[in-house]
Amino acid sequence: MTYYNTTHVSGNTLKNYETKAEKQAARILNLFTPGVMLTRHETYQKLNEVDTPETSVCGRLRDLVKANKLIKLPGTVRGEFGRPVHQWTSIETITINNT
Fold first, then answer.
1. For the whole model, what pTM was predicted?
2. For the purposes of burial, counting CB atoms within 10 Å of the CB of 13, is it exposed (0-12), middle (13-18) or buried (19 or more)?
3. Which of 43, 59, 72, 97 is packed most tightly, with the most Cβ within 10 A?
4. Angstrom distance (rounded) from CA 80 to CA 63
5. Residue 30 and residue 90: Cα distance in Å, rounded?
6. What is the pLDDT of residues 16-51, one digit of tens each?
């Protein structure tokens, strides 16, 4: 997974952040068991990491979609602030529903 190095860190700090991004992506992917559909905010809440910004979760969701591990669903649901938001689900969910 990608660590978006917008602050231009380098060396061991960059390696540390990249490792954290990989581990975070794995933890997020584990939340998406077959049949589970979550919004970005729901994913953030279930991840339950105090020191993780919600934007970091958004980046990992985008990475997992690019890696063909998750799918961003086309419709929207009512989000935590009453506005329409997208949901994500695992590739396995789509595979199971199409068989």
1. 0.85
2. exposed
3. 43
4. 23
5. 10
6. 999 999 999 999 999 999 999 999 999 999 998 878
